[in-house]
Amino acid sequence: MKVSKTQVDELARALGVLRGDMTHDAMQQLILTMVFLRQVSDVSEDATHGRPTWEHLVSQVGGPNFTQQVVQRALRAWSGDYGQFCLDLNDETVLGQLPFGGRRAEQALRDLVVVLNQVGRARIAADLFEECLARFSEDRAGGEYYTPRDVVRTMVGLMEPAPGDDVYDPACGSGGFLIEAARYVETHYERPADRATVPLRLFGRDVNTRTRRIAAMNLILHGLEDDVYRDLDSDSSLRHGSEPAEKHDIVLANPPFSMRWQDHMDGRFVSWRYGPPPKNNADFGWVQHVLGSLKPGGRAVTLLANGAAFRGGAERHIRAGLVHDDVLAAVIQLPPGLFPHTRIPACLWVFSKSKQAHSKHRVLFIDAENVGAQVSRGRRTLTDENLARIVDTFRGWSERGEAHEPGWCRTVTLDEIEAVDFDLLPSRHVAPVVAEPDPGDGERRVRELTEELYGHFAEAARLERELRDALAAL
Predict the structure, then answer these.
(1) Which InterPro entries would you find in this protein's record (predicted)?
(2) How is 366-419 classified by DSSP, letter by letter?
(3) C-alpha pair distances (Å), 107 with each of 13, 14, 101, 120
(4) How far is CA 78 from CA 129, 224, 255, in A?
(5) Helical pair 5-14 and 103-119, crossing angle rounded to 10 deg
(6) CA atoms in the 13 A half-sphere facing the CB of 321
(7) What's the total number of domains in the chain?
(8) Which residue segment(s) compose the domain that 235 sits in?
(9) pLDDT digits (tens, 9 = 90+) for 175-221
(10) 277 and 210 share a domain?
(11) What letter would DSSP give residue 293?
């Protein structure tokens, strides 16, 4: 059974009557928490250890005090340890906004449970959770912790994680990159014979308590609670500057675009290898943290707003350092409209500390601005074909060090980049497609111009006659 947007809309409608009592964000978190409860409590009686099952909760829908005596009891009972995570599902920041004792709150929770029960068995709860995140990202409040799945798949595909890799997301949001990296390994590699062997070691950090909680639930629903090296770190990644203590094989990051980094820390105590980023823009603070988090042979991909590719001042100086150190492998322009919560155009920056000899002192530029499928007004998505073309182009370039296709990609030397003052926007480097003229176009154009000229001659003759007639009448 496939989860649909309609089912997510039904969940949202169930709580719609509480809009005056709860913030939009709290309603979203409550829905996600109840989806999580749907899975973890849908077990046999002997596996509950005395905790109420989902079946029991559903059986109490028509009873009194459903919110306080049934739902809250279930949330408290199913709080606790899940692998590396410790979850408090009875979160007062969410449930504390419910008007307990009110008819609307009671009925809303009942409706929510009924809809969840109709969605299907708990085995699809992970899909439902992801669909909820995608739906909520259409609101500005949800977009900050969710990257669209097509973009995530493209970024993970560029990294090609393999069993045994350490994968780190310094701004992990809802955990989508870590989940997709695990999914990629499961799809492309056989599971080790020793089931206790962890195929990937997953690391995540996010300064926001709410988003860490969402990420933990998402990872647990996907069965990754034991693949995460430890509970998600609550520290700010930027506080660690260019040289965090831990190093990883792969870093995947979609940091907040153009945030003020010195709002979060005192820049005097943070070191940056390529120089401090502007106070009002942390884009290259994130880039330097990502590079500093890589092992000697590591690789990374980061999503940045287009402006990072060409802005001047300190950012131009940092780009020059990245180019001269030869850690930049590729810059990929994405099509507009991929992100429902922002219209800012973006590029993928691919970094490598293990460039092959044939790709050294070269950077691949891919201009994918015009690909993608229109899904609604102002919204596009990368198709499987688009994704494969981007990944295959980069993989081929990594193996051969050359790629050139007008309108799509081009290999550029470091000298060429320096000649344009370290402007790294792909459209600056990828030549547009020049249409081949049709052999008959020249002859047709001559005929058209000849006919147009004869027309001008005729008009000139008419004006001459009128002028002569006018002069004769004087």
Answers:
(1) DNA_Adenine_Mtase, DNA_methylase_A-5, DNA_methylase_N6_adenine_CS, SAM-dependent_MTases_sf
(2) EE-TT-SEEEETTEEE--HHHHHHHHHHHHHHHHHS--EETTTEEEEEHHHHHH
(3) 12, 9, 11, 21
(4) 17, 18, 32
(5) 160
(6) 16
(7) 3
(8) 147-429
(9) 999 999 999 999 998 765 554 556 789 999 998 888 999 999 999 99
(10) yes
(11) T
